[in-house]
Design a protein that fits this description.
The structure is a single chain. The chain has 87 residues and is mostly helical. The protein has helices at residues 21-45, 50-86. It has one domain (9-86). The protein is flat, with a radius of gyration of 21 Å.
Length: 87
């Protein structure tokens, strides 16, 4: 998908027609929902191993979530300890 310029702060200095972020998001969701299988099939036809890609994305996403979750828990524990110490 090529949206052209999207009406965001990054494109504030660009003159000309711009598309709203909401419109871009709606178009993407609609396209994915209606053509998801076609898109996946096309990726397979050009040599992308969609199954391996999905597994990698899932693994990477889970690892990123776990890292963020652990960081959040550590931050909460530090704040809790500081509050206990303070009073």
């Amino acid at each position: 998908m090529h949206a052209g310029f999207i009406d965001t702060d990054m494109a504030a200095g660009v003159s000309g027609e711009k598309v709203s972020p909401e419109s871009v998001a709606n178009q993407i969701v609609t396209a994915v929902a209606s053509d998801a299988e076609e898109v996946l099939d096309e990726h397979g036809r050009i040599g992308i191993d969609v199954e391996a890609l999905a597994a990698k994305l899932q693994s990477d996403g889970a690892a990123a979530f776990s890292k963020s979750w652990d960081s959040l828990l550590a931050c909460i524990a530090e704040k809790r300890a500081a509050l206990k110490k303070a009073g």
